[in-house]
Amino acid sequence: MPSVTAVNDTFPVSPPRAWVEIDLGALKKNLGVAREAFPGDLMAVVKAGAYGHGLEDIAKALENENIAFFGVANVGEARRIRTAGVETRIYLLGATWSEEREEIVARDWTPCISSIEEAEQFNRLAAARNKRLKVHLAVDTGMGRGGFVADHLPEKLAQLERMEYLEIEGIGSHLPSADEDEEFTLKQFARFEAIIAELGGATRFQWRHLSNSAGLLGYQQGVCNLSRPGLMLYGVSPLPEFQEKLSNVMTLKSRVTLVRTLPAGHGISYGRQFQTTKLTRVATVGIGYGDGYPRHVSGKSADVWIRGRRFPILGRVTMDQMMIDVTAADEVAEGDEVELFGSNIPVAEIADKADTIVWEIFTGITPRVVRCYKS
Asked: How many domains does the chain contain in total?
C-alpha cells in the first residue's frame, strides 16, 4: 500500500484512493530491449512527465544507464531534471520560443534548429557569453511540424556553420507514421540518408537520429547512430508484434469504497444509460476521469481487475467514481484493490475502448493520483 505524508499529527494518515505503481526494474528491462534492437546510442524521451510516470523519478532511475540524452519538450522540463540533480545531457525535441533561448544557452542544453532566424539568435546569445553552443539541425522529412525543408539544405548548412558560436554536432528528423505506414517510413529513412549524403556524409555529424520507438523496433537504422525511444520504455510497443518483449511499468489502481445490491430496473450513473435487469451487486470504486481514467470507455464493455478476475464497468465513468458489476463474486468487499490497467488489463485495451492512444492515457493521469515507485 502506498504511503503518504500527514497534514498534522491529530489524525491517522488515510491511504490514497487512487495511485499508480511504477516498476523501475521493468523500465530498465525495456531500456535493455531498446539496446538489443539498436546498437547505437539512445536518447530517452522523458517529456510530459516521462509520459505520466514522473519526470524526476524516471530521470533519476535512468541517469546511470549510459543514456546519451534525455529528450524533453520545453525548458520547464529541462529545469526540473537539473533541479533534481541529474546531469545527463538534455535535448529539446521541438522548436524553441525566443524567450526560452537565453536559458538554453546559459545552461548548455541542446536545441534543434529549424530556421536561420532561430540559429542567429542562439549565435548572438552564445557570443554574449563567449561560448559555443552545441545544436542539432532539424530537417523535415514528412512530419510537417518543424525543421528545415529539404530545399537548398547545403547552402543553409554552410550559413549555419559560419555562425562561429554554434557547433552543429547532430542532425535529426521525425517519423510520423512508423506504426501505420511502412512504405512511407522506408522512404523517409532513404530520404534522411540522402540528405546526410548531400550535406557531406555521416562523418559531418556526430549524432544522426530519426527513430522513435516504432522506428527503432521495426526498421533498419541505416546511417543513424542515435535513436529516441519513448513509449517502449514505459512498457508499450507501438508495433503489436513486439509487445511480448516489453515489461509493464505502470499499473493504475484504486479501491472499492462501497458494495450494494440494487434491484432490477435501477439506473446506474449519469444519464441512466445502464439499468439493471435483475438483482445486481454493484461495487463503487474511488477513481474517475478526474484522475485521468478515460470517460470515453463508458458503455464500451471495459473491465477492471479485482481479486484475480475481470469485472465490467457499469454506466458512465464519473469524475471521481465508477461502478462495477460484482454480482458473480460475493467475496468482493469494501477496501479491495482494483486494477484499472496494468499487467492484467493492458493499457492498450483501455485506449482502444476509449478511441484514443496509449500516449494520451499515460499523460492524462492527473496529479492527485499518487505515484509509487519500486525497483
From this structure: 2
